[in-house]
Design brief:
The longest helix is centred in the middle third of the chain and has 42 residues. The chain has 3 domains: 195 residues, GAF domain (Beta-Lactamase); 166 residues, Orthogonal Bundle (Hypothetical protein af1432); 105 residues, no CATH class. Helix content is 49%, strand content 11%. Strand 1 and strand 2 form a beta hairpin. The strands form 3 sheets. Strands 1, 2, 3, 4, 5, 6, 7 and 8 form an 8-stranded antiparallel β-sheet that branches. It has a two-stranded antiparallel ribbon with strand order 9-10. It is α+β, with helices and mostly antiparallel strands and 537 residues long.
Length: 537
């Protein structure tokens, strides 16, 4: 009979080795590396030639299966799954058959279902388990699978979360395949217990992270769904923010040469960018969705057009009455006045749409048109436009009045209040600062806190540029056509000159061609109208 691979006695060295492994497992934060450490430690202690780590997952049909996470075989030089970059192509093992009965034939599923360790001296002579798949693998590869040690991984609730399977123990001296020592079973069980705790913590942490991610994206989608005119804004600003941050991490010269983000900081930035407009949930829909200057619940332009129609009808009626009474009403004057009314109506319709800038002479014409008269159903003479309508139609930029813009701006206060009320863990503490600063300006004239450049973090300044560039190039805004890259960069250039955006970040934005990377994926081909950003530096 062959000598056992490792002494059955729990000597001092093995004890401390187990402590060392357990400590290492508890400190590992990368899930793939954790899987590998578990398998490495188990193989090391038992001198196993190969091993597999399975996790219990829910299949598409809602039935539990054992999925391969790591697969190793030293003799065959197989390293699959984990950080190897080599995917495992084997299908998962169902824990239950189609008729609902337990799948007790396979050693891994049997271990998962019974929560019992299995120590098989020779798989070819194990009658209570089905090793036909193992034998088929051996026939194809020329390998001889012999001894198996399979251990359930149970969490704190004594639920099986996975299975650790070891293959072919090797004699330390001869290298001959031997049975796994019975004396090692409690050691492997202790290792499996430590591994299960570490693994369960990682799974729970990942589940919580997945839940947070899904919740954040649902909020962003809800904000975008409030208005078709800002559709996908909350989903695209994170893309731009990360492109700028990546460029900053790769920059080897200039003010950002020391900027870097680790895995946790990347996640913090990602959460902040997805939540940057969460306060818009409190913004009234009619303000958020205001497509034209006179749009207050309904577009007021229809009422104005009706007045013009009434004025035209009244003009025509007067003309016909004068002719019927024998007066020589001038056909030419009638047609000129009618054309003037139509032209003024078209002008008001155009003014109602809004834009980047309204000329003073156009505002003056709106006020002049307001002095026209029409008669209501009681014959009372009234101005063509009310004072309120004149004020709205003379809005210089966009479609929002000062008060309405303040309502929009209030979303930043709400964003900060919402985010600061959340008990973010230590690694997400800066989310409110990052998300709450994207409307601040470098000279302190932004909102809601009037912060200056030196009071803001790099990520908050990055998000400000991302937010502006997305809005300028968006094809969803009703009051303007999507801007081309040249026009958008010209506006950002002017904002840099006015100390509204960070100059170093804008230079990086240009130099690293973030504008081009984003445009090629998210913008229309005709918007990408430049190749050289030099004029904008």
């Amino acid at each position: 009979m062959a000598t056992p691979a490792v002494s059955a006695e729990l000597d001092q060295d093995l004890f401390w080795r187990l402590i060392e492994i357990s400590t290492a497992l508890s400190g590992e934060r990368n899930t793939s590396r954790l899987f590998e450490r578990i398998l490495d430690a188990a193989q090391d202690i038992t001198h196993a030639d190969g091993g597999t780590l399975y996790l219990i997952k829910e299949h598409e049909e809602g039935k539990p299966v054992l999925e391969f996470e790591i697969l190793r075989n030293d003799s065959l030089k197989l390293r699959l799954g984990g950080t190897s970059g080599n995917p495992i192509q084997l299908p998962p093992l169902p824990l239950y058959r189609e008729d609902g009965s337990p799948n007790n034939g396979n050693i891994a599923t049997y271990t998962a279902l019974t929560k019992k360790m299995e120590n098989i001296e020779d798989a070819y002579f194990a009658e209570h388990l089905d090793f036909s798949g193992t034998k088929a693998f051996d026939a194809r590869s020329g390998y001889r699978s012999k001894s198996f040690l399979t251990v359930p991984l149970c969490n704190h609730a004594n639920e099986v979360i996975g299975v650790l399977q070891l293959l072919n123990a090797k004699d330390a001296e001869s290298g001959e395949t031997v049975a796994f020592s019975k004396g090692l079973e409690p050691i492997v069980a202790a290792l499996a217990s430590s591994a299960a705790i570490a693994l369960d913590n990682q799974i729970l942490l990942q589940d919580h992270k997945n839940l947070l991610d899904a919740f954040i994206k649902v909020i962003a989608q809800a904000i975008d769904a409030k208005s078709a005119h800002t559709s996908a804004h909350c989903q695209r600003v994170p893309v731009l923010t990360e492109l700028i941050a990546q460029a900053a991490c790769e920059d080897e010269s200039g003010p950002l040469r020391d900027f870097s983000l680790d895995e946790s900081e990347w996640y913090e930035l990602r959460v902040a960018s997805w939540m940057h407009d969460c306060g818009k949930l409190a913004t009234p829909d009619w303000v958020l969705d205001k497509a034209t200057k006179l749009h207050l619940m309904l577009d007021g332009i229809d009422a104005v057009k009706t007045r013009f129609s009434a004025a035209m009808a009244q003009l025509e009626l007067n003309f016909l009455r004068q002719n019927a009474a024998g007066s020589a009403a001038s056909q030419e004057m009638f047609e000129q006045e009618l054309a003037s009314l139509r032209d003024d109506c078209l002008f008001i319709e155009k003014a109602n749409v809004g834009g980047e800038f309204m000329k003073p002479e156009d505002q003056a014409r709106v006020k002049q048109i307001a002095t026209r008269k029409w008669r209501d159903h009681l014959g009372v003479e009234k101005p063509m436009l009310t004072e309120t309508e004149v004020a709205y139609l003379c809005i210089e930029r966009g479609t929002l009045s000062y008060d309405e813009r303040q309502k929009i701006n209030d979303h930043m206060k709400v964003t900060i209040q919402m985010l600061e009320s959340l008990p973010f863990p230590k690694n997400l503490k800066r989310v409110p600062e990052y998300a709450g600063g994207h409307h601040e300006k470098m000279d302190g004239t932004g909102f809601p806190r009037g912060l200056k450049r030196e009071q803001m973090s790099w990520p908050a300044r990055m998000m400000a540029i991302a937010d502006i560039f997305e809005a300028l190039t968006s094809s969803d805004r009703p009051y303007k056509a999507p801007m081309k890259i040249s026009q958008s960069l010209s506006i950002l250039q002017k904002m840099r000159q006015q100390s509204h955006i960070d100059p170093d970040l804008f230079d990086l934005f240009l130099k690293s061609r973030v504008w081009e990377k984003y445009a090629r994926i998210y913008l229309r081909p005709e918007q990408l109208d430049i190749t050289d950003p030099a004029p904008y530096f």
